[in-house]
Amino acid sequence: MISFVLALTSIAPAAGDPGAAVRCVQEDVIGSLVQKRRVCHTVREWRVIEARAFDETSRIVMPGTLNALNNDPDPNAVVPR
Description:
By secondary structure, the protein is an alpha+beta fold. Helix content is 23%, strand content 26%.
């Protein structure tokens, strides 16, 4: 998902759990110059999304390097999803 973050808002966490706070961003809609969509997740969910995006990018950009999941230096190794 490639987009530019236009706005960032957050809502106070419930019961003192900082991972439960909701954070919303407005993303560009692909194919439109003006349409935006609002995407909201908890801080914990955003961290998971960011980690998955980093892992996927690393898998694509750095083939043949050590795989952080299984430390297998074999570039032909099957990566579990």
